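Note to self: keep these together.
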Amino acid sequence: MSSASHSTTTRSPRDREEPVVYVVDDDESMRFALGNLLRSVGLRVETFETSGDFLAFPKYDAPSCLILDVRLRGESGLAFQEQIGKSEVHMPIVFMTGHGDIPMTVQAMKAGAVDFLAKPFRDQDMLDAVANALARDAERLTSEQTMAALRGAYDSLTPREREVMGFVVAGLMNKQIAGEMNLSEITVKIHRGHVMRKMAARSVADLVRKSESLGVDARSQKSS
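Structure:
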């Protein structure tokens, strides 16, 4: 049984904003102590006895991190770290152990752990590690959300607008684009205006930056 009481109620939009810390440790007293420590600074905490309980729990759409004991009953925390890396769960991991050694630390850090704390650790060291992990995950989520919005904006362009965009980011003027596409200059201007509006581009330089973020080849967008 997990020591956390997991709510099944509908989550509010605030759940997407408030950071959450997940703790996986088969030691009930450690789960209790960490839960109290993290809640004392206003963090939301979910604790689990096994990795299976953690994986089965629906994750919050919010900045998150995982505090993981390197030695769990019947399994290795390092092996679970590898399993997580192959799953859809993406969050920074803070390892803790009472049996750590240098090779184990190196392996965990190479696999992406953000910190590795030996028990007994100072409360402040854990809080600092968690704060760093949550900040890192917040940056990841912001980047993913920005890219998703950018991809959605690009997908909203018509094939012809994408072709115009390709020529614009390649540095062509409206008159040159009109010649390339066999269109009137005023038609190109209209398409260009649609592209700038849909892509929320403040300038051609901004459009170029967004195009590069999307990996769009400047002049490869041909209308069908």
